[in-house]
Design brief:
It is a single chain. The chain has 149 residues and is α+β, with helices and mostly antiparallel strands. Helix content is 46%, strand content 15%. The chain has a four-stranded antiparallel sheet with strand order 3-2-1-4. It is globular and about 35 Å long.
């Protein structure tokens, strides 16, 4: 990522061996244009197991479009400790994806929702990110919105 791009989020891969892959999304304490500012680095999401496997293509697509500073994610990317710098828009998209995946059970539905999040307009991303961070029912409303749309 170029020096002028602010890394507002980080996606961290912290596996427990090749069989147990997991990723964490952290929001960093930097001034944000749209995302709510945090005082200290804060874990805002975690995925592993079936949820991670189902959302991996969407995570890769979001990171590829990482605020114009794409990050290529290899198929075995989450099998080793790694930190991916993430800009604001991509970080908010990943946060939406992580929140939605926590609610859903169906891997197919997770893939559909992930593709929808990756294709959302920036305004919608900002709107729904604000909803999920300020309203307890926000994540459920977001998944309902995507399921009906």
């Amino acid at each position: 990522m170029p020096a002028d791009a602010v890394t507002l989020f980080e996606l961290r891969s912290l596996p427990e061996g090749r069989a147990k892959q997991r990723v964490f999304l952290l929001q960093l304490p930097h001034r944000a244009e749209f995302a709510k500012v945090v005082e200290v680095p804060t874990t805002v999401g975690r995925l592993d197991g079936t949820s991670l496997a189902a959302t991996r293509p969407s995570i890769a697509a979001i990171l590829q479009n990482n605020n114009g500073h794409g990050v290529n994610v290899a198929d075995d990317a989450f099998t080793e400790d790694r930190v991916y710098p993430v800009g604001e828009d991509a970080g908010m998209r990943l946060h939406l994806l992580f929140e939605a995946a926590q609610i859903m059970r169906s891997p197919e539905k997770m893939q559909q929702v992930g593709a929808a999040i990756a294709a959302m307009e920036p305004y919608d991303v900002t709107y729904w990110h604000k909803k999920i961070t300020q309203d307890k029912q926000g994540p459920k409303r977001f998944v309902t919105f995507l399921s009906e749309g």
